[in-house]
Amino acid sequence: MSAETVSVTGWGRTAPTAARLIRPRTYEEAVAAVRDCGARGGIPRGLGRAYGDAAQNAGGAVLDMTALDRVHVIDAAGGIVLCDAGVSLHRLMRVLLPLGWFVPVTPGTRHVTVGGAIGADIHGKNHHVSGSFSRHVLSFELLTADGEIRAVSRGTPLFDATTGGMGLTGVILTATVQLQPVQTSLMSVDTERARDLDDLMARLSATDDYYRYSVAWIDLLARGAATGRAVLTRGEHAPLDALGTRARRDPLAFRPAQLPAPPAVLPEGLLNRRTVGWFNELWYRKAPRARTGQLQKLSTFFHPLDGVPHWNRVYGRGGFVQYQFVVPYGREDALRRVVRRLSERRCPSFLAVLKRFGDADPGWLSFPLPGWTLALDIPAGLPGLGALLDGLDEEVAAAGGRVYLAKDSRLRPELLAAMYPRLDDFRALRAELDPRGAFVSDLSRRLDL
To answer: Which of 219, 63, 40 is nearest to 143 (CA)?
Structure first.
């Protein structure tokens, strides 16, 4: 087991803090690390794709779990995998796709670990159909603060506290996950343009149930009658008979393309209103008004940014803030006001996506609830950004919505209880399970989790 003191940030590259980074290579080393994490406690970390401070721990320990990455058992008939929590979704795709199985839920990057997927209870383009990742987890093994390894089954309080619990109930060591059957590694994709936000919401509401996967890119710099104009993309796993003769020779091939990484140092202010405005105009205009049945690679449909290593560098040294919220159905007025405020403020976000969520998931701090969710990236140095987002937090909370803790880096703690009604239950279980505060993060200190 190795250990060194390093500076740690989230994927947004903001608010770095120093911590002792520990890399256990066996379960026994993980137990030893938890029992000896020190007065400032420790927090598990996967591949570092949480955008904010959820996997940081100033002055304490951070447990890098990526060395525990074995795939133990695959039930190729039933579509069930037992693996270490340090296994990435990328690796699972490489192993499972040739067998005709796909991960049940994937976010916008495949470079997240199974443990991180459970701890953040990740969602994807299919939440309205499939729910979040935890809905497909059958059980997991959890290393708790007392150094014991517990078998945790779905439907129990510890399961529901851990799924979405941001690593604060313990270290997930292994997980058993139910998979999604597929015939090919291609997607059949329909694309259309929406002229404004109301047009977009109407299209999504009317036809989303016909698709397993659905997402809309929104131009947040468009104003006036075009406010909220969007490109709507929906898809299904392509069946074998949709492929041409050549593609049928290897229908489950998984060969994601990769571009060169951007330079380690880029000019500050590269992403501004002018450059993002040009990009948004080009992206909207080049999208077809309506196209159906286009075949795309899985990596193109689900993870386009993974093709650019370290794409987060394009925001410069100052980094960026990812802001994601959800408001319930019936509160579309709140969504309209938020989009209008962002548009009027001319927020230079070229990654703004709107999705519809289905039924809420059982995790006490799980983010999704039935409603509309908008996620966007904003350069951290944008003048007045803090005041703008504080105002949006209040708008979201008043509408009965919430922000996503896996992407948060600046929410005020007084709004948390209104957003997460099971917060007191979570705190009580943590106090009972971890009285000495073995598991702690910059996020948990900031929000008093």
So the answer is: 63
pTM for the full model? 0.96
Q: Within 13 Å of residue 163, how many CA atoms lie on the same side as its CB?
A: 29
Rounded CA gap, 162 and 224, in Å? 44
Per the CB < 8 A criterion, the answer to whether 353 and 407 are in contact is no
Distances in whole angstroms, Cα of residue 241 to Cα of each of 93, 248, 255, 345, 449 = 22, 8, 21, 48, 51
Q: Can you spell out the DSSP letters for 227-247? A: TT-EEEEEEEEPPGGGS-TTG
pLDDT of residue 279: 80
Tokens, residue 361 = 């998931």
User: Using an 8 Å Cβ cutoff, are 308 and 257 in contact?
Assistant: no
Rounded Cα distance, 447 and 420, in Å:
12
Structure tokens at 32: 């030893």
Rounded Cα gap, residues 161 and 366, in angstroms? 9
**Residue 3, pLDDT score:** 84
Work out the burial of residue 270: count CB atoms within 10 Å of its CB; fewer than 13 is exposed, 13-18 middle, 19 or more buried.
middle
Q: Residue 320 is encoded by which pair of tokens?
A: 């960026």
Position 3: which residue type? Answer: A
Average pLDDT over residues 293-321: 91
d(Cα 265, Cα 285) in Å, to the nearest integer? 31
3-state secondary structure of 67: coil
Give the model confidence (pLDDT) of 50-89 as tens digits: 999 999 999 999 999 999 999 999 999 999 999 999 999 9
CB atoms within 10 A of CB 57: 30
Euclidean distance between CA atoms 279 and 70, whole angstroms: 41
Residue in the structure block whose two tokens are 């492929």: 243
